Amino acid sequence: MPSPAKKPAAKRDAKAAAPKSKAVGKEVRPGSADAPVRSGSTPQVPRGMKDILPQEQRYWRHIYKKIESLARGYGYERIDTPILEETSLFVRAAGKQSDIVEKEMFSFIDKGGDNVSLRPEGTAPVARAYINHGMLAMPQPVKLYYVGPMFRYERPQHGRYRQHHQFGFEVFGDSNPVIDAELIMLAHQFYKDLGIKTTVHINSLGCPNCRPNFTAEIVAYFRSKRSQLCEDCKRRMTKNPLRVLDCKVPGCVALKEAAPHIVDHLDDDCKNKLMRVLEFLDDLQVPYVLDPHLVRGFDYYTRTVFEVVLSDEQVIPAPLPVPAAPAHGHRGHQAVPEAQPVQEVPQPMPAVALGGGGRYDNLIEQMGGRPTPACGFGIGLERAILQMKALQIDPPDDNRTEVFLAQLGDQARRKVFALFDELRAADVRVAANLSKNALKGQLEAANKMGAKLTAIIGQKEVLDGTVLLRDMESGMQEIVDYNKAVLEITKKLGRE
Ligand code: AMP
Fold first, then answer.
1. Model-level pTM?
2. Which ligand 1 atom sits closest to the C-alpha of 152?
């Protein structure tokens, strides 16, 4: 638990970052049901958020499998933290002046008067859990991974949502640069396992010892160009000058080209550690480029920072034709609000980060724990899926029905019930539509589901103690003994 002595400071931080929400105090009581309702309209998914429909789920299952396989292979244990945290956690970790804390958090006062936020990222909650549960007493390093939704109040656009999902790998209690390299390799390997070629952009943000030197260099460089900077960067110049290097406004991007390189101003220890990471990456054959202006959105990073981007070598197929939007969608005649994109066109995102991370050696101490070096990364699942679609990488449809059980009559239904259970126990993906009577409709359903076989039990089969097995591709039919049906079906599915 955080020490009680720290609490007032945390509360102050939380207050400072609390958004001035109309929803607090005045029109709407926090957590009340008095929210204004647009009369007559159907509730819509919140702006920048998405439903993940059944037809999308195979992408998610595929990705979850890859994450779990990497975690198992490299010895990372899963951790789940709450979606809601004290706002002060993110203020202390990401920094009061970070874009995330200044502009992007979903924060509110709960019914008990506490300032809480939907988590915008996964590292700070996992670091909190490491301290709260005394994981420092465990054999180090402690290797953890998480998967789940994150919330950022951003302007929704292609690949940028207000709710997105991330998985992340974190290592606590080891300062060896080989850990940085292992994590970078894992982020790269995740995409390789999906069939996507990526390159890693890498830099070092130094340590408290050398950071003031290059921060001064950066400030000196941009000071003379202040009038050409965007308004946000003018503010950053006084509050958080390194963030100017991360600005995406074209004018600022152009100015950045000739800015001093951070690596030229690192102290010897930080420089050596960066070199060690690069050597390990060479050994691991992870493609990387040194990006001397790479900085990241959170203040907690020290030394190594990196981002994973689509590789220049990645062959990009011609874009798929976009299916026309149906004339009448499931929303009937209701107008779709402008903000809801109906169809997202899959397109590769060469310039966008597909994941990123770095070392954060001071975060645990900054949050009240004992000094503990740490390093980690986060990867956005929606962006990974958008890349898969754009590159026409089709995940296996591992939930597809293998056998459809069709029946005619009540007695047959009873036999189908029993067979259903036996097949399920034999790990066969099986489906039926027991409320249907006509065989034609049932065969159509089997076809729609892509079943390989349909097992038909009609009145004749009930009397004979048999099952009619139909191969849905060839149309060939075969009568088999009811008691041997499971064996015959598993054989035909190539399970034996
Ligand atoms: P960050 O925590 O900003 O480094 O983000 C880590 C990764 O999460 C990014 O590289 C993206 O893949 C993904 N990501 C971050 N923000 C969003 C967002 N608003 N929408 C979708 N994906 C995001």
1. 0.85
2. 19
- Which has more confidence, 317 or 78? 78
Quickly tell me which residue has 């770095």 as its tokens: 358
Q: d(Cα 475, Cα 452) in Å, to the nearest integer?
A: 10
**Whole-Å CA distances, 73 to 61, 68, 167, 172, 283:** 18, 8, 16, 18, 19
Local confidence band at 399 (pLDDT 50, 70, 90 cut-offs): confident
* Residue 144 near residue 77, CB atoms below 8 Å: yes
Spatial distance between the Cα atoms of 76 and 69, rounded to a whole number of angstroms: 10
Q: Which residues, judged by CB distance below 6 Å to any ligand atom, belong to the binding site of ligand 1?
A: 121, 152, 154, 159-161, 164, 166, 297, 353-356, 378-380, 382-383
Cα(48) to centroid of ligand 1, in Å?
13
Please check the confidence at residue 329 and state whether its pLDDT lies above 60.
no
Give distance in angstroms: CA of 168 to centre of ligand 1.
11
pLDDT for the residue numbered 319: 67
User: 334 pLDDT band (50/70/90 cuts)?
Assistant: very low
Q: Which atom of ligand 1 is nearest to the CA of 353?
A: 10
Q: What does the domain layout of the chain look like in residue ranges?
A: 54-210+266-390, 403-492
The CATH H-level superfamily of 403-492 is Anticodon-binding domain (3.40.50.800)
What's domain 54-210+266-390's superfamily in CATH? Bira Bifunctional Protein; Domain 2 (3.30.930.10)
Q: Whose CA is nearest to atom 4 of ligand 1?
A: 356
pLDDT at 481: 97
Work out the average pLDDT over 190-217: 95
Residue 486 — very low, low, confident or very high, per pLDDT cuts 50/70/90?
very high
* 164, 306, 379, best to mutate for ligand 1 pocket (most atoms within 8 Å of CB): 164
CA-proximal residue: ligand 1, atom 17 (nearest) = 160
Mean model confidence pLDDT for the chain: 88
Residue whose CB lies within 8 A of the most ligand 1 atoms, among 123, 146, 150, 377, for a mutation test = 150
